[in-house]
Design a protein that fits this description.
The protein has about 350 residues and is an alpha+beta fold. It contains 14 helices and 6 strands. Helices cover about 55% and strands about 10% of the residues. The strands form 2 sheets. A 4-stranded mixed β-sheet has the order 1-2-4-3. It has a two-stranded antiparallel ribbon with strand order 5-6. α8 runs antiparallel to α9. The protein is globular.
Amino acid sequence: MKCFELIRYSIDPESPAPNMEGVDWELLYTFAKKQAIAGVMFSGIKRLKLGDCEIPKKIWLRWYMYGEKIEKRNAEVDKVGIEVSELFRKNGLPNCILKGQGNAQMYPQPEVRTPGDIDIWVDGKISRLVKIARRKRPTAKACYHHVDFGKYKGVEVEIHYRPAYINNLIYNARLQRWFRDSAYEQMTHRIVFKNSSDEITVPTLEFNRIFQMAHISNHVIQEGIGLRQLLDYYYLLLQGFSEEERKRDEQLLKRFGLYNVASSVMYVLHEVFGLQQKQLLVPVDERRGKFLLKEIMIAGNFGKYDKRLEGNRKAFTKNVARLKRDFRYLRFFPSECLWEPIFRIYHFCWRMFH
């Protein structure tokens, strides 16, 4: 597919330039926005020698302006991330920034990654963190792993007391224990931004390989995942790991029930982004991977473009839609789908006390 060829050209300087003859530029632009990778793809387009396949001027200008908007927003979110982290730290609450702007630092050009909100993992009692958030936003709802802090200088912030979770309560208990055991190292790991001398606390690469797979798994089952999140994981794996680390990670992925999702993600990383076999964390599962890629292409970033979910805003119809989704995913990811209704009941009870 032309879009995959252009993605590989955009992220890999050694990848051959795609032949863009006959491409529907409007459709390609829509795809890039739908998958939240417009900035990355535009960096590749700017390197192309298009000749007779010149991109229409109106699409070029629209893409250029959108790219400028992404760069500006990245600078804003970087600044807010540092401020929010220091705000909690000064109040005696160790923390680190999850995903987002930390992931961007693994990109050759951090400014082209489409930014989202700020997810901050804070070390503290859940009741205290919920109370802090509700001072800022009295109506903030606490869910199992985070509570909304509201907007801080124009950027949405989520306070995480758990980095992520999975539906299977047995696997989830193991995962949460691993998170607790790993917390100190993550909240003391500092990096310097590529485009400035500013520092920020983010998780280690070793932690991210497991945590971000749990995050991906949760979104795959709950609502959908887009190529931006998998591109983040692509750059994470490009940072490298030893054979000993790979074996350890493989064991952890199995222990936390994440292996099936991981093997399907590896398929997408190989097929779409061109990641080499030796760079993959676990072997590819082609059957599951093809299903995941199909869902990604249909639903887009976080499932926001999935028309199958339209009209399912009310509690009853939303729960019915989730059950249908569980059934559709069951033969590919049985554990998470079978446990999803159970976790929903558990989560309902949990929220009654928070």
